[in-house]
Amino acid sequence: MTTNITNIALTGLRAAQAGLAVTANNISNQGTPGYSRQQVMLQSAMSNFSGAGYFGQGVDVVTVQRAYSDFLSSQASQSASTLSYLSTYSDQMSGLINRLGSVDTGINQSLNALYSAMGRFSQNPAETASRQAALAAAQSTAARFRAVSEDLSTLSQGIDNQASATVGQINQLVQSIAAYNAKIGDAYGTGQGQAPNGLLDQRDVLVRELGKLTGITTSTQGTSVNVYLTNGQPLVLEQVASQLRIDTRDPNSPTGTSLSLTVGGHTMQLNQGDIDGGQLGALLQFRDNELAQAQSELGRLAIAMAAAYNQQQQFGLDSNGQPGQALFRIGNPVAVGQRGNTGDARLAVGIADTRSLTGSDYQLTRVGSEYVVTRLDDGTELGPFSSLPQNVDGLTIGLADGDLADGDTFTIKVASQAAAGVEVTLADPGKLAAAAPMGLVTADTNTGTAQASRLRSVESGSPDYGTSVTVRFTSATGYELLGEDGTVLSTGLLQPPQQTISHNGWAFDLAGIPAAGDTITVKADAGAPAGDNRNALAMAGLGTTRIAGGSTLTDAYAGLISQVGTRAASLNISKAAQQTAFDQAVASEQSLSGVNLDEEGANLLRYQQAYAAAGKVLGMSSELFDQLLAAIH
Hints:
Radius of gyration: 39 Å
Largest sheet: 5 strands, antiparallel
Shape: elongated
């Protein structure tokens, strides 16, 4: 019996000792990231039967178990991934706002200076100083466009660098998780199925860190954790790690970036949408959406400005009475071949006439033996053409080398680099065209409300500003053009909301509704270069003319900043809400898995007392044994 009591006491000593060891380990790892509180799992030892019933044999230490919930851990990891995505996206939006400037600064400050200078020039067209100031303001505006465009390009390059570094971190984590899968499998084997809690915690930390970098899903296979991208492609399969690659200078990618994944020696191309969530997803989505749109909108503004001022400048006469030359030029378009093209073509795309640019991007496709150009803004097909080069909407589209195969497609991005290349082409202030060769004359007998404005030049192979033409309206929407001798030159229909009538290289806008029989004459009336300021007034009026998609240039730029600011504010709200959700998820996880020092202190006392009590039982057993021996002797 004393031997039995001794053995029972020994099991109690071992259980209390195990409890003390686990408690000490918990206290030591209280600040360790990812550590899950551990518990000693005990169970009563198998009882022995005697004639008087079953007698207990003490306690067994079954295992050491970590306090862990897969649901709570997954919830916290998902919240961390979403928070990382929103934080990264929000930080990049702040960078974009800083580079665009405010409504009162940025491009608008230079534009307002240009409008003021053009106003003074229109009042004093004969003064060299006012001409010089107008030209300098135009140069300053062009420089401001280039500076903002360069800032956006720098931001894009920084994102590319961050994305490359993030991909490197992802690959390191993927390899580490695969290695941990191997270690954990070995530990389960050598531990006879006992869970290696420390290794499991460390692997969970790696999986959570990976989720912060890119959106992932996980599954359990045996003792391993398999990790997948959100599109289902595997990053880790048991002990095999895939490798993610990023190429930030892919000439066949519309965004300039391509992603690929190598799994077991097989490489597959990924779409940008396959990377969803986390830091990498935020970087790529911000660059391809917010930043690309801002660059495109800036380019469209540059195109609108260059087209409008060139239309007016090339309509007028300079100080020597010569036809005005283009004032601005913009950056050349970029052509990107579609991945999978089988031909060997390299496109040569340039600006044929800035005045005809629409700001839209285009797509060139080879269909059989013909070429089809599609204006992407409205889907209008231009062509088909039997050969290249062709002039389309102010662009020259040709082949630099090779040719397209049937089905090959190129995307022509017109606006993306337009702002980066804005320059003033004139160096001589005397080349500014203040005088006009023609004027608008509205008949006094008109009964409609139609008003003509903004007589300007348009692209034409043979402009004629020396011949008067009368527009006679046949209805509220129809008109005919009459020559000086009354001959009908052509007819046309007004197409609201943009009502423009053009002929012989000139055009004017029409507002209101004409009545049948109303006439407006575009009269050849070249003014004296020294005193005529009609064309200069028209250039000064561009500041308040809606030349940028129905808005003025300054309003359009303010709209761009407002749009970015609204989006950034919305993201900040989402980030704050997600921060709260993340804090709650972590708190829920920590309420189960975290180390509570008060609780561990109480456990320490409890196990200490249990150890002392078991020791007393052991001592009492020893005394009984001694007394038994003394009685025998």
